[in-house]
Structure formats: structure tokens, C-alpha cells
Amino acid sequence: MKFFIDTAETAEIRELATTGLVDGITTNPSLIKQSGRDFVEVIAEICDIIPGPVSAEVVALDAEGMLREGRRLAAIAGNVTVKLPLTWDGLKACRGLSDEGIATNVTLCFSANQALLAAKAGARFISPFIGRLDDLGVDGMDLIHKIRAIYDIYGFETEILAASIRSAAHVEACALAGADVATIPPKVLKSLSQHTLTDKGLASFLADWDATGQRI
Ligand code: E4P
């Protein structure tokens, strides 16, 4: 499973990139707002840091506007993936951009039927939002399982990019469900490395090492 990071904070991206764990980045208008930076400038900087796919989202609501914005975003760097909302117009724009060879990520997916439409429209990625479904008391992971099953039955190549991930448990469940990618907030990514037994074991090894009086 590939790891994308869900952030527009370039300092965080630079730090996480040193681990070699970051396969791509997703942003959205809210994350751009949080960064306080110019949209085009920040996407260009992220594309320089991370060679993998970097999602940049359109804000137009009509297909023509999305196509126009999508082409502009794709011109920023070769690794920009144009993020489009899962609306009727978003699907039209997805088909248009995909036919032009521009990679797309169809976002705000909350049902298996929506994911089926995105795959048929040529999306490179589909982004089902797990956490926001969980917030409504609906099992977000169930959606990942359904999309995986449908895409496998019909051999769709659209990658399942599990989004709205809130916890380490979500990441583990996505991996078991066969999601191709999980886009993870930086804090959650770091939490994947943590275990109390790791901390306890390390403390006891270091105490024993100190007792030997040796140095490396
Ligand atoms: C994905 O591309 C979205 O940017 C993101 O995962 C949304 O997460 P949220 O529901 O925590 O805002």
C-alpha cells in the first residue's frame, strides 16, 4: 500500500520525505487555507520535494471551469494530479482531463456507485472518505471493501486512495481491505511507529547497556 500525506505544510513534507515513506501528497482547499500560502506556489514547492503524485483540487463547479482550472494546475508540474469533486460535472471533467492524459483524483466519494462512475470516467484515483462516514455512524471501511470488490470484478485500474483517515486503526484496516493508497495526516503517520512495548523494551535495553559501562 502506498502512503500519501494529507497536508500542504511543506516543512512537514520535507521532514517526512527523509524517511522514504512518502509516495505522494494530497491537498484540498481547506489544507491550502491552513497553510496560509499561495495555492500555485505551494503546489509547485510540494512537487519539487515529492516526485510522486501531488493532488491539487479545482474549485469550479461546472465541467468547463473544472477543465480550465485542471489544465492550469496540471501545467504547474508533471506530477500534479487534478482533484475533482464527485459530481456530475466533476465526472465530465474527469473524462475530459483523462482523455488529455492528465491524471485525476476524484474526491468526496461516499458510495460504491460513485466509485463505479469515477472508474468508468477514467479516474486515476478514487478518494473514499472513511472518517467522515464514521462521523455519521456509518462504517467507512465497509465502503473500501465494496469498492475493492467491484473494481476487482471488472478489472478497473483506478486506484483506491483511502482518505479522511483519522487513526492508526484506519490505516491497518485499509491495508487489510486492499486499498492501493492511504492518504494520512502527518500525526497519524508518525503514530504508526509507536508501541508501548517498543518504548519499554528500549528503556530496559539501554539500562542494561549503561550497566556494562561500555561506549560505542
Ligand atoms: C483527501 O484527499 C482529503 O484531503 C482528506 O483526507 C479529508 O480528510 P478530513 O475528512 O479529515 O478533512
Automatic annotation (TrEMBL):
Record-linked Pfam families: TAL_FSA
InterPro entries xrefs: Aldolase_TIM, TAL/FSA, Transaldolase_3B, Transaldolase_3B/F6P_aldolase, Transaldolase_AS, TSA/FSA_arc/bac
Secreted found in the keyword field: no
GO cellular component: cytoplasm
Reactions catalysed, as given in the entry: D-sedoheptulose 7-phosphate + D-glyceraldehyde 3-phosphate = D-erythrose 4-phosphate + beta-D-fructose 6-phosphate
This enzyme's EC code(s): 2.2.1.2
Pathway(s) this gene product operates in, as recorded in its UniProt entry: Carbohydrate degradation; pentose phosphate pathway; D-glyceraldehyde 3-phosphate and beta-D-fructose 6-phosphate from D-ribose 5-phosphate and D-xylulose 5-phosphate (non-oxidative stage): step 2/3
Enzyme class: transferase
The UniProt record lists the keyword Transmembrane: no
Active-site residue numbers: 83 (schiff-base intermediate with substrate)
Record key words, sorted: Cytoplasm, Pentose shunt, Schiff base, Transferase
Subcellular location: Cytoplasm
One Gene Ontology molecular-function label: transaldolase activity
Principal localisation: cytoplasm
Family per record: Belongs to the transaldolase family. Type 3B subfamily.
Function: Transaldolase is important for the balance of metabolites in the pentose-phosphate pathway.
Name of the protein: Probable transaldolase
Gene: tal
